[in-house]
Amino acid sequence: MPKLPYKPKEKTKYAREILPKQVDFKLVVKQLSGLAQVLTGLAFKELKTFGMGICSDHIVEPARAKLIPGFYKVKEAAMRCGAYGASISGAGPSVFAACSRAIARKVGEAMVEAFEEEGVEASFLVAKPSKEGAKVEDVA
């Protein structure tokens, strides 16, 4: 998670404003193919398929990547370490990678190092999927 000086509400509003207002049909088809991979990966618990799907964002990620210094270097670092995919979480600036638990720490460290090479302070958290859905936790 990069530490950037954004106020959450302002950041989300701006991250929405920079999205393209119109998108070429061929790009939408590519995007839907990636979405199908994400859903298939989730439905069948196939991490590799899920990872390929999150790497197939041709609309939102390119627009929002500009808000995260070094994003593509961070994504590349995760993939080099064996992650199946990496992308921007929500409106950003948090970034996540899909990888096996066995390499999660190595992937997180590589992502932090890539951010730091861009002059961005960052940290990582190894998380696992939950069947409970969203919940509020104290992270302190």
The CATH architecture designation of the domain at 24-117 is 2-Layer Sandwich
With strands numbered from the N-terminus, the spatial order across the biggest sheet is 1-2
Largest sheet: 2 strands, antiparallel
How many helices?
A: 6
Number of strands: 2
Outline of this structure?
47% of the residues lie in helices and 6% in strands.
Give a description of the structure:
Keywords: ATP-binding, Kinase, Nucleotide-binding, Transferase. This is GHMP kinase C-terminal domain-containing protein. GO terms for molecular function: ATP binding; kinase activity. It comes from Thermoproteota archaeon. It holds the Pfam family GHMP_kinases_C. This protein has helices at 8-17, 25-43, 47-54, 60-64, 71-80, 104-117, and strands at 85-88, 95-98. It is mainly alpha-helical and 140 residues long. It has a domain at 24-117: Alpha-Beta Plaits, CATH 3.30.70. A two-stranded antiparallel sheet has the order 1-2. A hairpin with a 6-residue loop joins strand 1 and strand 2. It starts with 7 loop residues before the first helix and ends in a 23-residue tail after the last helix.
Helices, strands, pairings?
Layout: H1 8-17, H2 25-43, H3 47-54, H4 60-64, H5 71-80, E1 85-88, E2 95-98, H6 104-117
Antiparallel strand pairs: 1-2
Helix pairs in contact: 2-3, 5-6
Domain GHMP kinase C-terminal: 50-116
Organism: Thermoproteota archaeon
Pfam families: GHMP_kinases_C
Pick out its properties.
140 residues; single chain; 2 strands; 6 helices; globular; Alpha-Beta Plaits
